[in-house]
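Entry: Phytoene synthase
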Amino acid sequence: MITRELNAAGVTDPALRAAYARCRDLNSRDGKTYFLATRLLPPHRRPAVHALYGFARWADDIVDDPDPGLTAEERAVRLTKLDDDLSAALRYGRSAHPVNAALCDTVFRYGIDPRLFTDFMRSMRMDLTVTEYATYEDLRRYMHGSAAVIGLQVLPVLGSVAPPGTAEPHAASLGVAFQLTNFLRDVGEDLDRDRVYVPQDLLSAHGVDRELLRWCRVHRRTDVRVRAALRDLGAMTRGIYRHAARGVPMLHPASRPCVGTALVLYRAILDEIEAAGYAVMHRRAVVPRRRKARALVPALARTAALRVRAGSPFADRRAGGGALPGTVTP
C-alpha cells in the first residue's frame, strides 16, 4: 500500500520513501482513528498526512516517554534537538532524521507555513513544566499550538474550494475538538502524569480539586461533582465540533469523506463518554467496531463515487499536475 501511495505522490528518492514509510508506521500504530480516516484520501495525499502526524507523534512521544529515568531536562534537550533539526531541514531542504525529512518534503510540496511548527513545539515544551491551566483561555493558548495548528497544517494537503481565510478557522476548530475529546477521555491517565487539562476554574465551580480527582482515580469511582465538571467541558466540546463541521463542505470534494469520517468517529468517542456518565477516571471510552463500520461504509461509497467521476471538474489531481496542491479549479 505504501508503495502505491508514494508512487502516486511522485516520491522517488529511496531515503525519502523510507522516511515517509516510517511516518506511516507511526500513524498506523498510534493514531488508529486518524489512520482509518486517512485511508479515505486519494493515495497521493496520504503520505503528506502521515508525515504531519508522524512528526506530531514523535514530539509527543518525547514529552510522554514512560521511562521514569528521564528527567524533564533530558526531555527538553531531546525536544530542542528535534526542533533544531527541523529548523535546519526547513532552511536547507534536507534532514538525516527520517521524520523530519518527510515533514520537510511535505512542507515544501504543499507550501505549509513553517511558523505553525514553531507554535507546535512551543506547546510541546509547555507539557514539560505546566501541569494545569487556570482558565479555558489559558488552555486555549496551549491548544493553539498543540491542536489548532495541526488542522492548519493539514488544510493545504486536503485542499479547499473556499478561500483559506474562510476555511482555516474551521480546520483549527477540528483540531481543538479532537484534543478536548482526548482530554475528556484521558483525565485519569493524564492525572497519572501529574497533568490536569480541565481548566481549574471549571473544576472549582463544581467543587473539584486534585485531591478529589486522585480519590476517584484510586477508588475507581467518579464523584458526582467531577461528572458535572466534565459534562460542562463536554458541552463546550460539542459546540466546537459544530463549528468544525461547517468547514467540511469547504474542503476539496476528494478530502471530505476522510475529514467527515474522522469527525464522526472522534465525536463518537464523546458520545461514549457521555453514555458512560463521564466515568472516565478509571476507564477509557472506546467506540465499538460496529459503530466505526457504520461511519466508514457510507464514506467508502462516497469515495468510490468520486473516483468514478474522474473526468469531472472536481476530480482530484495527482501531485505535480493540474492545480497547485491545496487548491482546486472549479
